Amino acid sequence: MTVLLRALCCALALAGQSTRAQGLPAEVESALARAKVPREALSVLVLPAQGGGVPRLSHRAAVPVNAASMMKLLTTYAALDLLGPAFTWRTPVLLDGSVQDGTLQGNLYIQGQGDPKLVVERLWLLLRRVQGLGIRSIAGDIVLDRSAFETVPQDPAEFDGEPLRPYNAAPDALLLNYKSVLMTFVPDAAAKVARVQFEPPLAGVQTQASVPLSGGDCSDYRAALRAEFFDPLRIRFAGHYPASCGEKVWPVAYADPSSYAARAVEGLWREMGGKLGGRLREGKTPASLKPSFEMTSAPLAEIVRDINKYSNNVMAQQLFLTLALQAGSRPDAASGVGTIAGARSVLQAWWKERITGDTGAATGDPAADMPVLDNGAGLSRQGRISAQALARLLQTAWRSPLMPELVSSLPISGVDGTLRRSKTKMIGSAHLKTGSLRDVSGVAGYVDGASGQRYVLVAIVNHPNALAARAAIDALIDWTAKDH
Fold it and tell me: Which of 86, 307, 340, 427 is most buried by its number of CB atoms within 10 A?
């Protein structure tokens, strides 16, 4: 075969691959038809993870769409790259006064710096360390400093009508326990009641210590409890608890999130035997004070795993604002506050440098791929990104030393996280970030092919029936994995 003939055959093969890339697999077409979703509502791109080559499948890949929680891939990978996987958040505790005979003669300051996972157990440890300084009573106030982040107004019911779900909490420089209450129900057959434990205890909030036990199955115990959560000063139950449920834990967002931190700190401090002469209030920490100690978070790599595995919106927004806060802490920065505008600016600059400038990806015009950013979590109607832009991000990450941290943070198909209930037949074959909102459903990540090839898969549906199209997305995962 001459060189010219070999070149012609190669060109014809590539042309054939490009042509095949435009047709959706038959099983995907069938699943879309069953879901009553037109093929024009789907954006798909499948191509080698390491870059180069012709896309195995491409359909409307350059069209900007709402990617919902798949936008967390941008926030988390940029954070790993900019801050490093070992980055930690610190929450300083400062004393304004001396300690005399177990009493702090002044105020105690807790300075929030955006820790996404300052849960009740770690709040208890923080207050225990305060007691370890010899403090049993505070003559002044406990002051909560939340000034590191701008206040982000948010309607917790806007996207899914679930204002009491903890993941819908708004970001906060001093985010405590996701502004939620954990209620544990423990049946006591002898007393014919279920004991109810509340964590953390909230100062000034009346709670109910028990509810009557009942028979029946446990299919909808939350409805049977007939809970009343919307009064900030009282949590009560007008119903009963099925004994067949055994022990259950129910996390619920507190009805008045703006007062949650103060109530949680005071309630836990008093439960631990601490006394308070003043009050809980908000305020800025005096610049002259030095920390007595700092609570340190888990490393960023662990936080990213929580964000991506379980698609935690508020943790993603905490990380988003942290990018602005850390950029603003530089001596040449104009502001030391984490703002949404600042975070968008940081991510846009990072995208231009790391993604637009990436020459190893093969997904179209990189200059046209700039995403439209909103809050870093994808909990937005304004955010936009194309399938080819997400694919460029994933290819860049695959070639990065940070690849193991990002891939291990993604749900495994049919195994864990938000993909635990996936109906894919190729269980364990893919690490994919999911995304879903009203009118949006999709996945983006990596699929191991049966041939040994690893692929980037991005599949996004924007349509009123998007959630019904999950079978089509599962079919795409299976089709990608069956490449031999």
Answer: 307
